[in-house]
Amino acid sequence: MQAGIIRLGNMPSILSSGAVVGKKEHEGPLGKYFGQYDETDEFGMPTWEQSESEMQRLALNQALESGNLTIHDVDAIFAGDLMNQCTSSGYGLANFDAQFFGLFGACSTIIEGISLGSMLVDSGKYRRIAAVTSSHNCSAERQFRFPIEYGGQRPPTAQWTVTGAGAFIVEMHKKPPFVAEVLPGRVIDKGITDANNMGAAMAPAAVDTIKRYFTESSKKPEDFDAIITGDLGYEGSGILVDLLRTENIDIARRHLDCGLLMYDRMGQDVHAGGSGCGCCASVLHGYILQKMKEYKMKDVLVIATGALMSPAAVQQGLSIPGIAHLIRLTMSENCD
Fold first, then answer.
1. Which residue(s) pair with 102 in the sheet?
2. pTM for the complete prediction?
């Protein structure tokens, strides 16, 4: 029997969080929710890759400060990014004195980190963990497509990699919001080979995870205030809603996508919306958790999607597998 929804009996708390973003993200509809940004996207560093590492450091320090903690109060860090060998995380968090788990889930990394950390906190193995991730538009373009100086044209299905980093402190049950349930994703490959259409590559994985959740839990989309995907963007969100309708699951009235929330799609010329590890992480910190603390959202599903590709795989014309990890966040002490 395959494992499904993992219900966390002790319901760990998200104590605090932090996020930093770039200029374009600050100028978007959610700009007021981000406390720290850089007009140059450089964050005082000489290369884009080092800038991304600095973003992780800043985000984690922000989360620690918000929770009135030092790094010595954290048992372990779960972190990852889009760069080869997760170098943004390795360099950015190198001087933090805590056990380190390097993760790669592409744009699903923040929910992967929160999931793993929450399960360990729920089990009592750790008291408190940090989940951290980042992406930078310029470092991602250089690695996966072309350096921005090249000036290549992007098709309408392409998404804009978010320059952003997010960090979350999860601890033993104290106050809401709580992590009530976790549903790890499965690798789903539907044969999409277009590296400029990440939404189409990731949407089937989101369909698989969401379908499994509602089938096993016997809940309905209407039971939640929002069903939030990480970065399917315009293209992938449409595919997700359409495919779920064929399974008699209609999430249209509850669905939000971080990649669509981040930018003014037409005014900021981001084509199909935002993407990247920093997309879900920064929106979760700045917007979703804020709405929950205001009790404007009380019970939500967050499903972060990732495209598990590499530059070599894309250059060889291989298809792009997708993944989608789910967590349930609630403000209620009693989660059925």
1. 79
2. 0.95
